[in-house]
Amino acid sequence: MVRFCIRSCSDRPSDLYRSTVFAVSSGHGVSGVAVIRVTGPETSEAVKLMTKSDNLPKPRYASLRKIYQPSTGDLVDKGLILWFPGPNSFTGEDLAEFQVHGGSAVVEGILTSLSEIDGLYPAMAGDFTRRAFENEKLDLTEVEGLADLIHAQTEAQRKQALRQMDGHLSQLYKIWSKTLLKSVADIEATIDFSEDVIEDGILTNVKNSVNKLAKEVRNHLEDGRRGEKLRSGVNVVIAGPPNVGKSSLLNLLCQRPAAIVSPLEGTTRDVVETAVNIGGYPVLFSDTAGIRQSIDPVEKEGIKRAKSKISAADFVLIVHDLSKYKHVDIDGLLESPLRMLNTNVDESTSADFDENIEYLMILNKADLITNNLAVQMKEAFNTKGVNACIISCETGDGIEDFINILSQKMKDICGDPVVGNPSITQARHRFHLREALNSLEIYLRMAHDGFEDHDLVLGAEELRIALRELGRITGNIGTEDILDVIFRDFCIGK
Amino acid sequence: MLRFTRNFCYRLGCDSFYDVIVVGGGHAGTESAAAAARNGSRVCLISHDLTKIGEMSCNPSFGGIGKGHLIREIDALDGLCGRICDLSGIHYKVLNKRKGPAVWGLRAQMDRNLYRSNMQVEIKSTPNLSLLQGAVVDLILSSDGDKQLGRNYVLHNGSIIKARSVVLTTGTFLRGKIYIGKTLSIFLNRDVTNFIDHEYEIMDPLGNRVIHGTPPRLDGRTIDYKKLVIQHGDEKPTPFSFLNRAVKIEPAEQLPCFLTLTNSNTHSIITRHLHLTPHIKEEVCGPRQYLLFMQYCPSIESKVIRFRGRNHQIFLEPEGFDSSIVYPNGISCTLPENIQKAMIRSVHGLEDVEIVQTGYGVEYDYIDPRQLKPSLETRKVSGLFFAGQINGTTGYEEAAAQGIIAGINSSLMVKGMSPLILDRADGYIGVLIDDLTTRGTTEPYRMFTSRAEFRLRLRPDNADLRLTEKGYKVGIVREQRFEKMVKIKTKFDKAINTLRELKFSESSWKARCNLSGMRHSVTKVNFFFSGLEMLINSRVSLSDISRGFPAEFRDIVEDDYLCNRIEIEGSYANAIERQNKDVSELRRLEYLALPDDLDYTRLGFLDEEEKEKLSTVAPRTLGSASRIDGISASSLVQLLKFVKKYKQIHT
């Protein structure tokens, strides 16, 4: 007699609580077209929200639609939507495919929009395959092939993404997990060992700690804005004294005469903006009026606008005319690169710039000095540890290095779309952080009323949820970890 | 085969062929034997001393936080310990009463003698269950196919007891030794070396070797109670069993406990003599072959070492009506006799105390429970089950919980039926067994509520609604209990549905039901609240709601017991709803069964570490595979393939 190891008293799991998940299914990095799949019971609702329409596209036909971010109503992209009602779909459930432009900004935008819809979750590794499998939609070879694809979302990849996230960020998430783990352990200790643990003080400490953590997470979510930059473009401002070649640089970057150039100082008076793709990132360059003392009211207005642009910039290219420096004296240049930009034009417009604005020094007109001097200048900057590019807009010398450095900068600002698909990582991190924050805030509201009115177990549940969400970013935190902290910090046991 | 020395045979008759043999008469053994017998199997329980059946060898209490949950679940499956407790409890106290009902810890002090005799009466009157006294010395595997249990078992003197499955619940007897101080006092089960060797052969690799300390037992007549803090039990005791609305011993007759504290004198006596205790010494200088600082049941020595300068509680617990012995809970130790005396006499209120029995250390091996299937059957030998402390757990309740599952499944196996397997969303029993069989344990495992992901739904109050029907379906819950549960469930469900359907705004609720001083729910910002959601509020009761809707709740409003249960359900309803997604995710993975005999070493897509881990655990389902640390998601997807293959073959 064959004995089955299939559950004895369970029927097929019900679909009542099946979630709806989404993921990029077209591989990593920048590609011409990106495919994002959504599957599960909320799919039709998601499509309706994303297309601002109550009508679903015709099943199994490619339909061109405008795609919006439901929370803001902003247009994200125009793309093809394919609607496969279950069970005739890859997963056997309702499924929709968004075929959109492959730029990281668009992909990020779609993922963010989807994650903001109630009941939608970023797919976990293997989710799509598992659903397909459960609904008898896969044969063996298919499972095999898909395993490779899914590899992109494995634990190893998660770790890699965490590693490649800038060190500061991964450190931050880990510290948060650790802080929260301690709070969870404290609360769990008062629950599981109420005879051994004296509660007084613990609840207050936990409340303070959670409050501080919630603040940090909230600020972090509001601050980063990387995804936003990816969508709307990074604001890069070209600034510097008059007639150093700022407009020439802009024209060189966009490969067309976007700005008027002339040998005369003060040619550019208004801000000239151009969107350029730098290494796959959308960058919005703003060429500004050269900054100097001026009495011309038009030029003054231009300078005022330039300065306000600089204040709002994500990144500033400070351009100087190298030919004005006949010998290696860069101290003046470096004393405070931004002070030059602070030159009082008019008392009323002289807002000081944030010294923290990120910038890159561009030393133009290298063709006008000797090679030797250029090399010496370069070395002088290196010794000072300052990023500087020596270029010539006239001959194109040094432009390649400059573009590489600039791409790297844009990558730092936006995240790297080539490595482990960071737009996914990014959206996923934000999703889990938001969920964690939500639970922390519920806990705080309960703690505020006091746990005489609220069940501490429900409060503890919120903290456990928050810890699990953080764990999805930093690696799982299990019961044993909680127990370890409890037994380390409390003397427990009869 | 089991070989053992026969001293005494109880009701053996001429029938020496059984369906199930249970070896051991402790808390795992009794539940095992009774469960298999309830299921209709002919069962023989073999113990080296039948008078010790139902003995509480350690602390004189049952239950606690997490442990009380287990007792309720065992009771829901028609197990014994809850009912026996209610006949023998002399001091009932629900712990954690200030927190939510999900973590209330049902607990009671027992009269040791009453518990033992009540358990023996129960066991002796259980149909289909025979008792046999003797030491089992060997377990003989059949010659046909080396993975089959022999279906017959041999006594030491030549007598053979045959059975189709065997449950081993031998507790601390695996290479067991008892120490007082560092002096080896006795070898437990010294005459069963063959048997032990055989167990090693079957169970490989081993888990860990541990030493448990026990406290010295005190003569209560020499305690100065006037100096101590008295602790009364609950005015209205909460019974363990769903069958009881009251416990046997009247609250007025129940006995109090007392509380005292260690002090710096006590601590210095202990620290000065640490070199005389076997387990601390090994920790410092020996190879780490013993697990010494057991966190979950720490000895007073380790508490003093790890938490310097702190005073530790000692609960002085009565052992029964007819006993003057007092059990000082909180100071288990392995110190020599004279040091124990000095130590205990340094404690406030115990200055003149006499020790009745010196505290001793028990040293034993436990097996690595990852060699067991979730049914608690060994993977190596079909028909052989392990339950209780031998699997690396501590506590009567943890032992009993495994016992009932091993008992049910040994019987179901004989009948050729699928085993009863509880998952992590079914109950604490499911959490316990899943933790043991998929993660193993590095020290004796103890139940905590924090181990349960679905703590809000796995409550002591609803264990019957969760489990009784499951038990009834496989035939271990008797008719009477099932009917009782169904009656409650019908009323319960009806009321819950009614509450769900009543939806009003907050002000409307207040007006209709005349609620005052009510705060609204934190987790929801909805305008409308269902009646169920109103119950989340600790200041709203079902009788408040029935004021506004007398017709709807007419038939239950008088029933305090039922109202209370509904209120508890209501207070967690929203949070449970939120967890449902996680539960169905869990179950979906649990539905994907992996073949038992999958050879992981031959799967190329696994790395070496994964191969080793999967081979050790042999997960039953994709779900348990996913809970093993360090198995990558892509390997899990590859494993889907084998699920598929398996399904094709078997369906």
UniProtKB/TrEMBL annotation, chain A:
GO biological process: tRNA methylation; tRNA wobble uridine modification
UniProt-listed InterPro entries: G_TrmE, GTP-bd, GTP-bd_TrmE_N, GTPase_MnmE, MnmE_dom2, MnmE_helical, P-loop_NTPase, Small_GTP-bd
Gene Ontology molecular function terms on file: GTP binding; GTPase activity
Sequence ranges assigned to domain TrmE-type G in this UniProt record: 233-411
Keyword Nucleotide-binding: yes
GO cellular component: cytoplasm; mitochondrion
PROSITE patterns: G_TRME (PS51709)
tRNA processing is among the record's keywords: yes
Keywords: GTP-binding, Nucleotide-binding, tRNA processing
Annotated compartments: Mitochondrion
NCBIfam families to which the protein is assigned, alphabetical: mnmE_trmE_thdF, PRK05291.1-3, small_GTP
Family under the similarity heading: Belongs to the TRAFAC class TrmE-Era-EngA-EngB-Septin-like GTPase superfamily. TrmE GTPase family.
HAMAP family per the UniProt record, alphabetical: GTPase_MnmE
Protein's UniProt name: TrmE-type G domain-containing protein
Species this protein is from: Trichoplax adhaerens
TrEMBL record, chain B:
One cellular-component annotation, GO: mitochondrion
Keywords (A to Z) from UniProt: FAD, Flavoprotein
GO molecular function: flavin adenine dinucleotide binding
Start and end residues of each tRNA uridine 5-carboxymethylaminomethyl modification enzyme C-terminal subdomain domain: 570-641
InterPro entries: FAD/NAD-bd_sf, GIDA_C_N, MnmG, MnmG-rel, MnmG-rel_CS, MnmG_C, MnmG_C_subdom, MnmG_C_subdom_sf
Cofactor(s) the protein requires to work: FAD
Family assignment from sequence similarity: Belongs to the MnmG family.
Record protein name field: tRNA uridine 5-carboxymethylaminomethyl modification enzyme C-terminal subdomain domain-containing protein
Organism: Trichoplax adhaerens (Trichoplax reptans)
